[in-house]
Amino acid sequence: MSDRPVLWSVAGNDSGGGAGLSADARAAEGCAVHLCPVVASITAQNSLGVDRVVPVAAEVLDAQLAALAADLRPSVIKTGLIGSAEGVAVLMRWLARFDAESGPRVRLVVDPVLGASAGGAAFCDDALLAAYRERLLPRADLITPNRREAARLLGVADAATPAEVPAQAAALRALGAGAVAITGGDSADGTDALDWIDTPLARGWLALPRLDARHTHGTGCTFATSAAAAMARGFVAADALVLAKMATTAAIAAGHAAGQGAGPVGFDAGFAGDARRLPRLGCDETPPGPVVVPPERWPGGLYAISDSFAQAMPLLAAAAEVAGLCALQLRIKRAAHRGLDDAAFAEALQAQIGQAQAAIAALPAERRPVLVINDHHALVLDAIEAGRLDAASIALHLGQEDMLALGAAGRARLAAAQARGLRLGLSSHSLWELARATALQPAYVACGPVWATTTKDMPWTPQGLHNLGWWARMAPVPVVGIGGVLDETQVEAVMAAGAADVCLVRALAAQPGDADPAAAQRERLARMAAACQRGREPSAALAPPLWPCASLDPAAEAGIVA
Predict the structure, then answer these.
(1) SS3 of 182, please?
(2) Core vs surface per residue 234-271: b (16+ CB within 10 A) or e
(3) What DSSP letter does each residue of 34-57 carry, written as one string?
(4) pLDDT-derived band of residue 561, with 50, 70 and 90 as boundaries?
(5) CB distance 161 to 168 below 8 Å
(6) For the purposes of burial, counting CB atoms within 10 Å of the CB of 351, is it exposed (0-12), middle (13-18) or buried (19 or more)?
(7) For range 136-163, the mean pLDDT
(8) Residues 455 and 490: beta-carbon distance below 8 Å
(9) Which residues neighbour 183 within 8 Å (Cβ) at sequence distance 6 or greater?
(10) d(Cα 413, Cα 394) in Å, to the nearest integer?
(11) Is residue 9 within 8 Å of residue 68, measured between CB atoms?
(12) Which secondary structure element, helix H or strand E, spans residue 20, and what is its range?
């Protein structure tokens, strides 16, 4: 049996070797999946255009699928140039058989190839267009049209500006598609190549700098096949689209001349480990700005989390004598103060922030951790704008759901506070969250949970040292490893994976059985700081992985709201 996931591509053969099954084969090999190329249409074409398209007979297509079903059941089926409504009907019969089986769901990625980019030849008649709308889209887990194809599927005019694209994606999802990516690399909208994604978990513009390249034949096939390959490797659609964006950009950079027209894109099997290819994901319908790395680097070391200033006091006392504590987060939850109204809670929170700031200021300058406030962005921003709080004196940590809830106006307020010196930390659990975080100018990005944790209920599978190492390799800012870190061995391993900080929740907290609480706190801090330092030694460094692993079961996708 194959040790690679099996991907079927039901598509057209390009006699010029540029697009179709030729591009699919390059992408599948580069993504380490096993491709089964199912010929649905035969084309007569070269680099200058398409002369003829002949769909294969329905019985020939059915025979190919039957042979594969008997031996190579797919994880994902990707469609390209099918060529006829009869071909769609054959494919749908096989999908219905798979759906009736007890095995894992066969996911479907539809690249609606409706016409040629070179020469403008039409591949789709009214019957085939109706089959797309009525049969393929309602079953599709992901569709990847370009802007012309999206408009034709909907029977509307092409989007004249990027602002019209999100509504068209929503309309395609309303027709039944589970997720939509409307690609825009062929639309000259600016310095970035923008693809709009609309999935159950994330919506927004995926952006990477546009490459000055002539040889771009096969980009649509490469994008769809790379997304399908990532889904075959277990990624949800939103993460698969991040990888597809990376793969396609790298493939364009590897394009070459073949014939007199535009040559084919190549494929760079190292794309998933190339930090230059990590895209930015916007929070709303505004394209994301460029990556801006804060001028002040985030300090490296131990990052402690406390539920109150009272809980943090013994740790700060120990930090006066033991080096290693670089950040202290106050994670004060509103639910723990139900007896206070909003005004009283805000006053109590401000008091604890003030107490923590005073305690930190009393420490030797070289041992003062950064004070981080978890959530409570409205209170922090109000205090900064009113002059009650110096933006440069603290950091603010937000989960991505909080960042989205801010809305455009709230994010503009946050950006203004960042310009005044506020440092921002963002949680990330998936590729799309990392891509979104990179566009928001954070001082650091947290990656977690590294190991299983009981401090918070989450749908994410543990990232492990593998994904932590990938985050550290790819993120443009320092990475904080968080989740399930309880002992020195884990602290050392997190640092060896490339993290700047290791986050400790329970491992540094006072214990009920401590005979001498102050001495015990100093001893715990010293042990963890020593482990942190050992993990930083070059001899301890772990090799960064080329590919990440999926951190969310696709079956859980529908249960999470972006």
Answers:
(1) strand
(2) bbbbbbbbbbbbbbbbbbbbbbeebeebbbbbbbbbeb
(3) EEEEEEEEEEEEETTEEEEEEEPP
(4) very low
(5) no
(6) exposed
(7) 94
(8) no
(9) 144, 145, 146, 147, 195, 219, 220, 223
(10) 16
(11) no
(12) helix 20-30
Cis peptide preceding 449, ω within 30 of 0: yes
Q: Which amino acid is at 169?
A: A
> Strand locations in 57-176, DSSP E?
76-79, 107-110, 142-143
Residue 36 CB contacts under 8 Å (≥ 6 apart), including other chains: 6, 7, 8, 9, 68, 72, 74
Helices (H) and strands (E) in the chain, counts: 18, 18
d(CA 49, CA 59): 29
For the residues 291-297, what does the mean pLDDT come to? 84
Task: For 492-523, give one letter per residue: b (16+ CB within 10 A) or e.
Answer: bbbbbbbbbbbbbbebbbbeeeeeeeeebbbe
Alpha carbon distance 433, 435 (integer Å): 5
DSSP 397: E
pLDDT of residue 492: 97
Whole-angstrom Cα distance, residue 241 to residue 201? 12
Distance CA 157, CA 360 (A): 61
Q: Are 447 and 437 in contact (CB under 8 A)?
A: no
Structure tokens at 389: 């709080």
Going by C-alpha positions, the residue among 124, 118, 167 that lies closest to residue 19 is: 118
DSSP 132: I
Under the banding of pLDDT at 50, 70 and 90, the label for residue 71 is very high
The length of the chain in residues reads 562
**Higher-scoring residue by pLDDT: 101, 124:** 101
CA atoms of 414 and 2, how far apart (whole Å): 50
Residue written as tokens 């494919």? 91
| Residue 193, H or E segment | strand 192-198
Which tens digit of pLDDT belongs to each residue from 510-544? Answer: 777 778 888 989 999 999 999 999 999 999 999 99
Local structure of residue 102 (DSSP, 8 states):
S
Separation CA 253–CA 277 (nearest Å):
11
Among residues 202, 218, 196, the alpha carbon closest in space to that of 150 is found at: 196
Q: How many CA atoms lie within 13 A of 515 on its CB side?
A: 0
Q: Rounded to an integer, what distance in angstroms lies between the CA atom of residue 142 and that of residue 355?
A: 51
Name the least confident of 69-78, 107-116, 272-281, 484-493: 107-116
Considering only CA atoms, which of 517, 514, 506 is closest in space to residue 314? 517
The rounded mean pLDDT for the chain is 92
Write out the two tokens for 488: 């020195």
